[in-house]
Amino acid sequence: MRRLRGLRFRLVVAFGLVAAVSAVTTGALTFREARTGVLQQSQDATIRQLRAQLNQHAAELALPPERSALRKFAEDTAATESQGSWRVLVTYGDLSGSSASGDPFTEVTPALREAVASSRATVFQRVRHDGRTSLVVGMSILFSTQRIPDSVETASGVRVFLVVPQTTEQAYVDALVTAAERAMVAALALAVVLALLAARGVLVPVRKLRLATRRVAEGRLDTRLAVNGSDELAELSHTFNETAAALETSVAELREMEARARRFAADVSHELRTPLAAMSAVTDVLDEDAARLDPDTATAVRLISTETVKLARLVDDLMEISRFDAGAAVLHLDEIDLAESIRRTLGSRGWTDTVETELPPPHAVRARVDPRRIDVVVANLVGNALKHGARPVTVRLGGDDTVAVIEVRDSGPGIPSDVLPHVFERFYKSDSARIRSEGSGLGLAITAENVRLHGGTVRAAGHPAGGAVFTVELPLRRAEPTEEYRP
């Protein structure tokens, strides 16, 4: 079906239709003119010959004639035609005589007889009888008084009807039809050949343009087309080259800007880690002595300590994102019990009594994963549910022989439909009025990157019963243990 909708097929059909219409029109006009010429020539020759014979023998016919005289006149007239194909009928009133005894002359219709009787002109028509075409000519014999100058010819009452088969003419017409059909077939064949050549001339550049566009879409921005000629296709190729060059320049600039931004974030994060470590050590000491300080000083100390922890978490997240962007993230795979891993994650953060779990028995779901990154995934999703959702928060683990499914659901208001496509974007905030938040705004983005490293997927949705639900699907690896895995 795709080929039937292609440009090649449409070009061939268009050329074929144009050639067919042209051939049919030309053939029809040529056939009509040739047929008219053949039949007209035959008709004129027959009428001239008949008139010549009547002028020669009419004086021998006495008026009023007898039946035998009419028959002899008809036989003499028919005998003048060398091939013997004429059939002549002569009438005078109720009397008639023919060149062929017993011939009913069915071609001579009453309408033709009436036309000859009412007109001094020669009357003729072509009739088709028993599958054969014949020319029927009818005329009246006139006489005049030769001694009187400018005498008026008067009808003698004798009428002659000639029936001539047009077998030869029909053979000519059939030959014309055959020739027209052959010419049409040849024209169609030529049109198809020309259409294929034209299609090739059009489709080859189009195909090259399609392949070049596909290469550009695959990231090969240095792709260019050879420009040949100065037609529209050449202009299209030239425009493509200009567009590809502009796109290559723009993408290179964007990549350079992105690389600089990544280096900046990584450098800043790295440079902040040392002073943050010192600040964290100082704030730990101050936290221990906060109880002995005056209330205002203690409040300030606790605020500094809290903000220092947030800043340290933000720096750690930025460092992690920088590793993802640089392609330096490494998986340290190990085969673990996912249910036990989830229990350890909740226990280490004090969420065991806060979060409900629906986990399978021990060793029911085992997978080759990076334990640290799976811990981060579960912790970020549960922490997000506790922070932005409402209790109860439930963690479920299921799956089959090929995939493990981790589901985290809260009982909050859910996620608006316009926010769902953006929940895994970095620093995205659904409420623009919310200037600051407790998190870094990178938690879900880091979660998505960790899941992607494992070849899995993560998605967010609203639960029909209310609240938000995050679903992680991890492929179960059955390969032999390895030290590292780099995606």
TrEMBL record:
Domain of life, per lineage: Bacteria
Species of provenance: Streptomyces griseorubiginosus
GO cellular component assignments: plasma membrane
Keyword terms: ATP-binding, Cell membrane, Kinase, Membrane, Nucleotide-binding, Phosphoprotein, Transferase, Transmembrane, Transmembrane helix, Two-component regulatory system
E.C. designation(s): 2.7.13.3
Catalytic class of the enzyme: transferase
Membrane topology, as annotated: Multi-pass membrane protein
Record-given protein name: histidine kinase
Pfam families documented for this protein: HAMP (PF00672), HATPase_c (PF02518), HisKA (PF00512)
Reactions it catalyzes: ATP + protein L-histidine = ADP + protein N-phospho-L-histidine
Keyword Coiled coil: no
SUPFAM superfamilies with a match to the protein in the record: ATPase domain of HSP90 chaperone/DNA topoisomerase II/histidine kinase, HAMP domain-like, Homodimeric domain of signal transducing histidine kinase
Signal peptide bounds: none
Residue ranges of every copy of the HAMP domain listed in the record: 200-252
SMART domains: HAMP, HATPase_c, HisKA
InterPro entries: HAMP_dom, HATPase_C_sf, HATPase_dom, His_kinase_dom, HisK_dim/P_dom, HisK_dim/P_sf, Sig_transdc_His_kin-like_C
Compartments where located: Cell membrane
GO molecular function: ATP binding; phosphorelay sensor kinase activity
